[in-house]
Amino acid sequence: MNDPIVYLNGELTPLSEARVPVLDRGFIFGDGIYEVIPMYGRKAFRGQQHLARLFRSLDSIGIPNPHDEAGWNALISQVVEANGLEDQMIYLQVTRGVAKRAHAFPKEVVPTVLIMTNPMALPPAASIEKGVACVSMEDRRWLNCQIKSTSLLGNVLAAQFAAEHQVTEAIQFRDGYLSEASSSNVWVVKDGKISAPPKDNLILEGIRYGLMEELCAEQGIVLESRRITREEVLAADELMISSASKEVLPVVSLDGQPVGSGQPGPVFAKVYAAYQAAKARL
After folding, report:
1. CA–CA separation, 47 vs 235, rounded Å?
2. pLDDT at residue 1, rounded to an integer
């Protein structure tokens, strides 16, 4: 994809030619919402759930939704077909729009809508077979993490912290309790059971959260949502992270110390196989 085709405010255009005004509130304030939808064989994986989260996020910050579900799906299909990729990651972004710089919401402003795509880049086989390393850090982000906002500086700093430690992710703790990684949900396995932080304002409820609940039910694995202490994470038999781009990955090292046996565990193997089976049912 030398110059992918994007949708911007009613038009399909090459990415290199797409332009947004300087006074767009997404640029000035990070005043916007985004969503990322994985496409396998040009079919959206849990697309309805991704759009539902987009709608919730827009509503939570008072941005009028520019399209209904059918309208969004039609635009996504245009971008998918224009770029001709079988497997791709669709990125949607809606900002409040262009207005004179002032903090409060402007009146009668038209939202800016962008849809673009990238080739799907799945985790390498080694990450699945051998697992990945992570580092821990204090969660210093704001208290509305349930909103999928374009204001991602906290996540950027966490991702940079992971990069500086040459690991895959930074797993965050707030006041001694697990929240999430820089761009992933975190799953803790102990005695064959999976625990995850509750779906509250301290995490972004990943679309894989609901999927994991379904896969665990299929596989007869107990999954509970609750507050999880740092000590429990350090004593886990297995850790996993999940996101649209990572799918689900085993964490075998945290802060330089092995997690459990230091190898991907049996619960991960079951969940990963079930995840791939769910994709195959598209």
Report:
1. 35
2. 65
Q: Are 48 and 40 in contact (CB under 8 A)?
A: no
Q: Examine the domain organization and report whether 190 and 266 are in the same domain.
A: yes
Q: Which domain holds residue 261?
A: 125-281
Single-letter amino acid code for the residue at 133: A
φ, ψ for residue 14, nearest 5 deg: -60, 145
- What is the DSSP code string of 137-162? EE--S-S-TTS-BS--HHHHHHHHHH
> What is the pLDDT averaged over residues 103-116?
97
Predicted TM-score of the model (pTM): 0.95
Percent of the chain with pLDDT over 90: 99
Which amino acid belongs to residue 144?
N
> What is the separation, in whole angstroms, between the first and last Cα of the chain?
25
- Confirm if 154 and 30 have CB atoms less than 8 A apart: no
Tens digit of each residue's pLDDT (9 = 90 or more) over 228-246 = 999 999 999 999 999 999 9
CB 88 within 8 A of CB 120: yes
What does the DSSP 8-state code read for residue 123?
Answer: P
CA dihedral (91, 97, 98, 104) positive or negative = negative
Question: Which string of b and e fits 63-97 if b means at least 16 CB within 10 Å?
Answer: bebbbeeeebeebbeebbebbebeebbbbbbbbbb
Q: Which long-range contacts (CB under 8 A, 24 or more apart) does 151-157 make?
A: 151/29, 151/30, 151/31, 152/30, 153/30, 155/182, 155/183, 156/182
Residues 198 and 224 in one domain: yes
- Can you tell me the distance from the alpha carbon of 211 to that of 213, in angstroms, rounded to the nearest whole number? 5
Q: What is the CATH number of the domain that holds 110?
A: 3.30.470.10
Q: Which residues are catalytic?
A: 148
